[in-house]
Amino acid sequence: MQITGVTQYDLSHALEGSFEPNWIPGYPQSTHEVGLFELDTDTEHTGYAASPSFAGGLTYDGPLSLFLTGMDPHDVDAVRRKLASVDLIGPRPWHLLMALWDLVGKAADKPVYEILGGSSDPIPAYASAGEVGDVDDRLAWTQARVDEGFEAVKLRVASPEDVRIVEAVRESFPDLEIMVDANKGWAVRVMREEERWSPKTALSVARDLEPLDVRWLEEPLPRHDHESYADLRERTSVPIAGGEFLDDVGECYDLLDAGGVDVIQPDAAIVSGLRGGVGVAAAARERGVEFVPHTWTNGLGFAANLHVMAAVDAPYCEFPMEPPWTPDARDFLLEETFTLDDDGCVAPPDGPGLGVTVREEVLDG
């Protein structure tokens, strides 16, 4: 099998309203923008990958075709080396790796998780908020998620004062598993600069969270400051999480070697690729660190991460849920929509490759 070309589709899906993501300060998001990539081969199989995008997109299927045409998608390491050159001179390309595994699985007529050594066992899901909101709003949001069957939620905080949201949710839901995400690792600066925390502030927030029995505090510091992460981890009993938007899979190992996190979260669509994520999970396990990847991208990215989680028996699956950002909105480019089962879990798709089907309508424009 050889890759014969790459075609890019810039997709935009209108949300039924808007919300203000904590990682895009001051920006009301009303559309879901996706860069969809189609890898054609000299066989009947086509592989698909997708990346978060922005209005108008950033077109680079021409350079990708130049680098990848003639490559065997089974030779993942060789393709990754080619993509490293794309990363050097252009946009972050690691999402393309999911298309390779889509092709490999389709050629073998097996789901990717099976090729990677995993099973189809459902994975417990936690509802991942997008906004900060106020106390009343977040209490209502949490109740809605519990009513939907979630047994764990992740709350967003932007400033130290937002700990009061976590306090209120803990008081009202004493048995609920609660994660906390500060979103200080990175930001998209469309409207304004984000509020960064110093190590002193991050420690103060962590200590305020200690009596609230939270599962983890996520990204309280800039993502490249591994030393400060390690120092914070030593000085608080709250588990520290991060790594969702590191530059590449190598930096995941650097973060682990620095002792920076209790939970490492590389997204297969953004950082690690699929087999790279499996390797990071194995290295994390050796160090007593949990592996729970970030999944807030799109339906294809969610599917790719599910295959990785299934391969490594991850303890949790992040399930984005901030209406109007719903499963239907996340998965608009797919024929299928990922939903929870009756036990609050989500299972990897069991069809060949990534196990999902891109809707013909999005390919036809």
Q: If you had to describe this structure to a student in words, what would you say it looks like?
A:
The protein is α/β, with parallel strands linked by helices and 365 residues long. Helix 1 crosses helix 2 and helix 2 (76-89) packs antiparallel against helix 3. The protein has 14 helices and twelve strands. Strands 4, 5, 6, 7, 8, 9, 10, 11 and 12 form a nine-stranded mixed β-sheet that branches. It has a three-stranded antiparallel β-sheet with strand order 1-2-3, sandwiched between helices. The mean pLDDT is 96. The chain has helices at 61-68, 76-89, 96-108, 112-115, 135-148, 163-172, 199-209, 226-235, 249-257, 268-272, 274-286, 299-312, 327-330, 360-364, and strands at 3-19, 29-41, 46-52, 123-128, 152-156, 177-181, 217-218, 240-242, 263-264, 290-291, 317-320, 345-346.
Helix-strand blueprint:
Blueprint: E1 3-19, E2 29-41, E3 46-52, H1 61-68, H2 76-89, H3 96-108, H4 112-115, E4 123-128, H5 135-148, E5 152-156, H6 163-172, E6 177-181, H7 199-209, E7 217-218, H8 226-235, E8 240-242, H9 249-257, E9 263-264, H10 268-272, H11 274-286, E10 290-291, H12 299-312, E11 317-320, H13 327-330, E12 345-346, H14 360-364
Parallel strand pairs: 4-5, 4-11, 5-6, 6-7, 7-8, 8-9, 9-10
Antiparallel strand pairs: 1-2, 2-3, 4-12
Brief synopsis:
InterPro entries: DgoD-like, Enolase-like_C_sf, Enolase-like_N, Enolase_C-like, Mandelate_racemase_C. With 365 residues, the chain is an alpha/beta fold.
